[in-house]
Amino acid sequence: MLMRKIIYILLVLTAFGGGSAKAQIDTDRMTIIGRNALYFEDYILAIQYFNQIIKVKPYLADPYYYRAVGKYHLEDYPGALEDCDKALEINPYMIDAYNLRGILHQKLENPEASIDDYKRGLEVDPLNMNLMINLGIAYIQTKDFDEAIHVYSDILDESPNLVTAYLNRGLARFSAKDTIGALQDFSEAVERNPYIPDGFVNRSMIYYHQGAFEKALKDVDAAVKLRPEEASLYMNRGIIRYQLDNLRGTMADFNKFVELDPRNAMGYNNRGILRAEIGDLDGAIDDFSRVLALRGEDLPTLFYRGMLYQEKGEYRKALSDYNIVADAYPDYSPVYYNRAEVRLALGQKDAAQLDYNTAMKLEMDRREKIGKEEDQLASANKEEDEPADKKKRKETRGENDRNIRNYDKMAVLDDFGTDQPEELTSSSLRGKIQNRNIMVDLQGPYGLTFFPGDTLVHRVRYFDRDVEELAEHFHSGRSVEIANVTGEISREASAILFENIARLSARLENADDTESSVNLLMERGMHYLAVQNLNNAIEDFSSAVSLDSTCYLAYFQRAFARYKMVETVKSFEAEEAPSIEELKLSGSGDPLGAGGADQSSILDYNLIIDDLNKVIELAPEFEFAWFNRAFMKSLLRDFEASVEDYSKAIALNPDFAEAYFNRGLNRIYLEQTTEGTMDLSKAGELGVFEAYSIIKRYGAFETEKKLEEESAYE
């Protein structure tokens, strides 16, 4: 079990750091507003302000640096790194940029590059404590513990009261197997500032490793008092109480952990194991089911649940769980023993005998292969000298341990974490929006509308000259916008729309020229579209095309209305396959799911693409046609062609945020991870806030996938 590796990265937004003088007052004011947005954790808004400054004055380093800070807090590390590179290209003496870029390299698991950046920053400012602290952390990451200890000792010579240096030097010493030195440093941190919980937490872990559980409990109690809303502290204390056989206290701490972090599977897993130990089988099964709902690939938990179902006599449920485990672990003998008993209870005697024979053979093979090594290891363990006052520790497993043989062991946080809790609000986009649970869908196709739905200040609004000219001929007095989200229409507005439809119909009867008729048909078609009369909308747009085959906006709107029609029909089939735009991070390269689109949908999609082809033929500079065609190609699984169309849309409009977003998802489908992540970063920079959530989620998925591949049972 590894101890918590506390990273005290000091990212200071200095008030006067690294700045170039700015001539225009508006630019100065925009910079102040952007930095205020950073201070109030509205990172999305801050990025938009710095985007504007960069457009006007791309030769200034500060806006790139501050935009990098915003991206850093949104965990868009590749995008932030790119901005830091630009800031340092403009101003190679910008200390804060070296510091931030070093941090980003660490986040991206490139500590060697971090060391280089911190050293380059120290060449400019040799006594910069932020750089020195982070340099020590980078040395710890590269396992150069002696160098890290040396750095922190130098810091303490200059600043003997800097608690962070004691904590990090203690970490370095612990990593270097100097437990006594680490204990001294953590105790010194507690002595110098008893109001920082990290010293207590780290010292408690030293005591825990030494088997001094009472001392460990006392320190964690102190940390809980200082930081009562931090979930991980209750998990730590619960594990310590478990070692002390205080099961009531353990249960109370696990309950509190689940209350504070209800989507953390580890809490339910440990509480389920504890409930099973005390005989609460129903409670344990409920907890294990919650684990599997959050982490469906957790087969050790599935195996344990099967055992509990078996113990309760619910044999068919047990058999279902065992079947899945046996498929995943065909060489694990206990699952065959258990399944044999379940099948025997169900009267499946032949199948039970087959499972029993398989289990016997597997166990004999296993013992023959590793029996001697296990005996030698057990003998060596018995001969080890242990402190006289050391209490024997109950076996546990790491947080990410998926070894099937450890199914019944309590999980301990791999780092006994002390991460700061995130401050989130449920209704705003401020703060660390990458932590919000956001549905991951492609950004939908665009159409002309009187009622744009996405009015967020952060999102780019699009305009087109031809659309504006068309709107000038309309009679409703409403503005026309290009949008891919439409807002809800009030009852009063709906009544006005129907009145307008009647007036437009009357005007059409009296129209005496083609241009007037086309404009009236376009306006009425958009009204029909707004009130969801899609058949009439399509008919009006088709009539417009018949009158004027060069009216590309009529083709564009007909394609949009046809898409709405397909989606409306599909919405009535709720029992069908999941949403076809859903992002899958399984590496399958198939966002449509196993079923895909049915034949009728494919025919409809082809009709839509035909209309969009005509738009592109008539108006090749109209980026929204390329975007919509790319979207339709995604639905038809033609991802390479979709990426090409999105690229064309971006070439026509380099600030087309949604095109970057969708191209990024398509590239992820195609397992072009680096390119996809950079596209998502650009989309987030331009205002599609969902991108940051996906960057974080996809990064977490990749990490989890890597851990699973590395974890294997014996």
Task: Give a short synopsis of this structure.
TPR repeats lie at residues 95-128, 129-162, 163-196, 197-230, 231-264, 265-298, 299-332, 518-551, 623-656. With 714 residues, the chain is mainly α. The protein has helices at residues 25-39, 43-56, 61-73, 77-90, 95-107, 111-124, 129-141, 145-158, 163-175, 179-192, 197-210, 213-226, 231-243, 247-260, 265-277, 281-294, 299-312, 315-328, 333-345, 349-383, 465-472, 491-510, 514-530, 534-547, 552-571, 599-618, 623-635, 639-652, 657-669, 673-685, 690-710; strands at residues 396-398, 410-412, 447-449, 481-483.
Describe, in plain words, how this protein is organized in 3D:
InterPro entries: TPR-like_helical_dom_sf, TPR_rpt, Ycf3. It holds the Pfam family TPR_9. This is Tfp pilus assembly protein PilF. TPR repeats lie at residues 95-128, 129-162, 163-196, 197-230, 231-264, 265-298, 299-332, 518-551, 623-656. Residues 373-404 are annotated as: Disordered. It is a single chain. This protein has 714 residues and is mainly alpha-helical. The protein folds into three domains: 1-142, Tetratricopeptide repeat domain (Serine Threonine Protein Phosphatase 5, Tetratricopeptide repeat, Alpha Horseshoe); 263-375 and 403-417, Tetratricopeptide repeat domain (Serine Threonine Protein Phosphatase 5, Tetratricopeptide repeat, Alpha Horseshoe); 447-710, Tetratricopeptide repeat domain (Serine Threonine Protein Phosphatase 5, Tetratricopeptide repeat), CATH 1.25.40.10. Helix content is 66%, strand content 2%. The chain is built from 31 helices and four strands. A two-stranded parallel ribbon has the order 1-2. Strands 3-4 form a two-stranded antiparallel ribbon. Helix 1 (25-39) runs parallel beside helix 3 (61-73), helix 17 runs antiparallel to helix 18 (315-328) and helix 28 (639-652) packs antiparallel against helix 29. The longest helix is centred in the middle third of the chain and has 35 residues, at 349-383. The two termini are 18 Å apart.
